DNA sequence: ACAATAAAAATTATCTATAAAATTGGAAAT
DNA sequence: ATTTCCAATTTTATAGATAATTTTTATTGT
């Protein structure tokens, strides 16, 4: 949901909180008090509440009426669920995007992939990873689909940063290369199958924290 | 997103407006003024704004910062997009649900399907249709996936009520029967393929209004 | 000590008021 | 007649205040 929401206070709060939650700076299960963030952002609690609603829609927080919101907890099952959803939807996007992919786009994708290989930390790698997926899928011209995929990517990034999956080196970027190769040769089925396997693999490599992550 | 949100004013407004938009009572493109609904619901505009945010997340309205929200427009392309997304996600859900389906569940599904065949109007038929899909997919035990499917169903219903697809009789419910038969015989691949074809078909039967639907 | 309960504090939800921005209507200039 | 600009009006966005609900703390009875 990368829209220009930063002209408004609500948008600024939404983005900042989303970043923090995704980066793992606020632990799952943490209770989010509206007055607290109102003070932090020098705003009233109204825009904070609206930000909460948006975060809820992205699945980053869960809200219980009159009991406030807390950072969404997740477990290995949800990591797998998100991976499967991504696999399904990204394959769909790729099938529609493939006919519109130019070699210029694929060249750029290759550059992005190289940037990912040279990344210094997870954060940087994830940025490249997200950009790679986005650039080859975007030409599907299906905005609603892309919005869903973006939300799922945010969830995936959160899992990654939380230590669910530590490995972020070679294999992934090698998959990326295989996908590009297949696309250049117009082997769309191969590309789609590789993409599906690639995305699902992400959900199968639990790090050390396999238990339910939740504060308290 | 069928949660018990009606204990709060925001929840009541959200649900009412969602129903109206889905039913086509408010035309696509219509500008929604917060004061107007605040007065209608005897509330201030704050809960109305929060309701708008939720509707935005469901894709029922689009919001432009400082320019208000309007009922989301849609065209034949988006109808197809939603159909494809539903096909992908519902197949995923069915694959995970299949092992957990009991014959009791399938019996209930058959009852629901019969109710759909005897439906007096589109609305009634759509209720049965939604219930049918939900009962055979729910056992997948993937809440995030089900939430996404629910949102897509809401969009589909909107298209249906708007006259995009007029036919809602025999073939659909026959597909349903074929799916049940395959599930009873544990032919999960057949069931999945039938479901995919069934859902995609919905997006290929344009009624009379193929142009962009938008007020003004 | 423990459970149940009631008062106190904190927090969410909502309302009313204000500020900021966008839209509208009309007057002036070409 | 048409366009541009400015003021008036409407509408959105945010702030500040209040009501309602939940959570916490303290107290009483067993």
From TrEMBL, chains A, B:
Keyword Transcription regulation: yes
Keyword Transcription regulation: yes
Gene3D superfamilies hit by this protein: GntR ligand-binding domain-like, Winged helix-like DNA-binding domain superfamily/Winged helix DNA-binding domain
Keyword list, A-Z: DNA-binding, Transcription, Transcription regulation
GO molecular function, one term: DNA-binding transcription factor activity
HTH gntR-type domain span: 7-74
Alphabetized SMART domains for the sequence: FCD, HTH_GNTR
Name of protein: GntR family transcriptional regulator
Organism this protein belongs to: Thalassospira profundimaris
């Amino acid at each position: 949901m990368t829209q220009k929401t930063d002209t408004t206070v609500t948008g600024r709060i939404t983005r900042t909180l989303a970043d923090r939650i995704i980066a793992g700076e606020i632990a799952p299960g943490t209770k989010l008090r509206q007055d607290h963030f109102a003070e932090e952002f020098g705003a009233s609690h109204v825009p904070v509440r609206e930000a909460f609603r948006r975060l809820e829609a992205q699945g980053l927080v869960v809200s219980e009426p009159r009991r406030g919101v807390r950072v969404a907890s997740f477990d290995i099952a949800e990591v797998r669920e998100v991976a499967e959803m991504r696999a399904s939807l990204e394959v769909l996007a790729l099938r529609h995007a493939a006919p519109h992919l130019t070699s210029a786009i694929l060249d750029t994708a290759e550059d992005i992939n190289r940037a990912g290989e040279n990344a210094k930390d997870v954060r940087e790698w994830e940025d490249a990873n997200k950009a790679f997926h986005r650039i080859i899928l975007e030409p599907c011209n299906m905005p609603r689909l892309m919005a869903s995929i973006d939300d799922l990517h945010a969830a995936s990034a959160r899992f990654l940063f939380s230590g669910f999956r530590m490995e972020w080196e070679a294999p992934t970027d090698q998959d990326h290369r295989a996908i590009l190769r297949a696309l250049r040769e117009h082997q769309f089925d191969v590309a789609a199958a590789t993409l599906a396997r690639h995305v699902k693999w992400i959900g199968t490599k639990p790090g050390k924290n396999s238990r339910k992550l939740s504060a308290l």
